[in-house]
Design a protein that fits this description.
By secondary structure, the chain is of the alpha+beta class. The protein has helices at residues 2-18, 39-53, and strands at 21-27, 30-36, 59-66. The model is unreliable at 1-16 (pLDDT under 50).
Length: 68
């Protein structure tokens, strides 16, 4: 029974990590990275972090990847 619990725990951890999204945005002298379980939130958070530190608040998403 102990092995089954460990296997289920590892499977749950792997599946939850695979459902996360990581996004990276860049702008004029700034960049932003975000990782969340929802792709829309990951995009928005990366763009906001980039725009917050940029002298000109215009940033572009470079990539979004699942399970990162």
């Amino acid at each position: 029974m102990g092995r089954t619990v460990v296997a289920v725990s590892l499977l749950t951890l792997a599946s939850s990590e695979a459902s996360a999204w990581a996004c990276f945005a860049t702008g004029l002298g700034s960049s932003g990275f975000a990782r969340t379980y929802d792709i829309i939130d990951a995009k928005l958070f990366a763009l906001r972090r980039c725009e917050r530190n940029s002298p000109v608040p215009v940033c572009t998403l470079l990539w979004c990847r699942p399970g990162h």
